[in-house]
Amino acid sequence: MADTPKKVKERKLTDYKYPIPDPDPYTSGPFWEGAKEGKLMLPRCEDCNRAHWYPRIICPFCYSRSISWFEASGEGTLYTFAVQQRAFAPGWSEEGPYVTCYIDLNEGDRMFGVLLGGADIEPWDLFKKIGSKCKIEFVKANDDVHVPFWRLAE
Ligand SMILES: [Zn+2]
């Protein structure tokens, strides 16, 4: 008999114990600088004017090398999700279940992340949240790295 899925808990990450990204200042420096101030910085192509995620030195839409950065709203909508019952990455292995998600950013393109919840919720009830507003939240991993997470806005 399969395990009954546990509720997905509301999470407040004050003690960061998860893998810490190793920022590459050449491709994503402005993102990490913004993250330290709680701002979502996105790259935008100066030729076709489209924002993209993840950061690249070449526009994925028109292949231009004219990329600049701007402060985005830090908001989007839940495109899809997966409930992770088990995990192997350090820190996450004791956390199940937790939710990974794709967020449609208000400025365009889609960002992968971990959804911290909004309230305790049954995993299957998250289907009702597809299209719901989400807001980014940065959690301090160390003095140089603040990691983005997502939270349901309501
Ligand atoms: Zn472009």
Summarize the structure.
This protein has 154 residues and is mostly beta strands. It has one helix at 25-36, and strands at residues 41-45, 67-71, 75-84, 98-105, 110-115, 133-140, 146-152. The strands form two sheets. It has a five-stranded antiparallel beta sheet with strand order 5-4-3-6-7. It has a two-stranded antiparallel ribbon with strand order 1-2.
Key features of this structure:
1 helix; 154 residues; mainly beta; two-stranded antiparallel ribbon; five-stranded antiparallel β-sheet; single chain; binds zinc ion
General description of the model:
This protein is mainly beta and 154 residues long. The protein has one domain. The protein is 8% helix and 32% strand. It has a five-stranded antiparallel beta sheet. A two-stranded antiparallel sheet has the order 1-2. The longest helix has 12 residues, at 25-36. It is globular, with a radius of gyration of 16 Å. The mean pLDDT is 89. Zinc ion is lined by residues 45, 47-48, 50, 59, 61-62, 64.
Q: Treating each run of at least 4 consecutive H or I residues as one helix, how many helices?
A: 1
Radius of gyration: 16 Å
The number of domains is 1
State the low-pLDDT regions, or none. none
Overall pLDDT confidence: 89
- Sheet having the most strands: 5 strands, antiparallel
- Helical percentage: under 10%
Structural class, please?
mainly beta
Q: Which ligands does the model contain, each kind named once? A: zinc ion
* Strand-residue proportion: 25-35%
